[in-house]
Design a protein that fits this description.
It is built from 5 helices and 6 strands.
């Protein structure tokens, strides 16, 4: 690899066999090493390449910028319950005041009162709102939700993820990514 940019600056966008990204948020990217390995193991098709190459004594290969899996991976219908996925479902906004900073998650039925950590009992909340609600029920707190919690589908999280495009998008990726810039995140 020659020049100022090193190989770690050349990730590959990974598409499913149907040419849709495996994930929008985080964007499905592989390091150049993982991508080259997948090419040699015949697990992916190269769709597009960078102008940069990796070389050995007997071999030279342009770094793939977009690859598609040879075998279709059926996406799960429902995502795993994680803090990040709760924030993504709630569009990284406090469900009480609309603030986008200091996010935590709040149990509608407080854990101190037997509330469980589940999709239908947890919302994104900024620290001040979470502290204000405390161990009170929603009714006792007098606070209102902008959206009631629910278990999202993977499709819904992908849709929400498209509202938050990454800082860097290589031009070879643009034909496969659809960012929803018209909606307010």
């Amino acid at each position: 690899m020659t020049g100022a940019a090193t190989a770690e600056h050349f990730p590959a966008l990974v598409l499913n066999a149907d040419f849709r990204p495996l994930s929008y948020y985080p964007l499905s990217l592989w390091s150049w090493q993982d991508t080259v390995k997948a090419v040699f193991l015949d697990r992916v098709n190269i769709v597009s390449e960078y102008d940069r190459a990796v070389r050995s004594v007997a071999f030279e290969m342009k770094l793939p910028s977009v690859v598609s899996l040879k075998t279709y991976v059926k996406p799960a219908l429902y995502p795993a319950f994680t803090r990040f996925n709760v924030f993504l479902r709630d569009r990284f906004v406090c469900q009480y005041c609309g603030c986008k900073h200091e996010l935590t998650f709040d149990h509608l039925v407080p854990r101190a009162r037997g509330g469980e950590t589940r999709w239908d009992n947890v919302v994104a909340a900024c620290s001040p709102c979470n502290l204000a609600k405390g161990a009170k029920s929603l009714a006792q707190s007098g606070m209102r939700l902008s959206q009631h919690p629910y278990r999202p589908t993977v499709f819904e999280l992908h849709r929400n993820g498209r509202m938050f495009p990454p800082n860097y998008l290589h031009e070879s990726w643009l034909d496969y990514l659809y960012w929803d810039t018209e909606l307010d995140p």
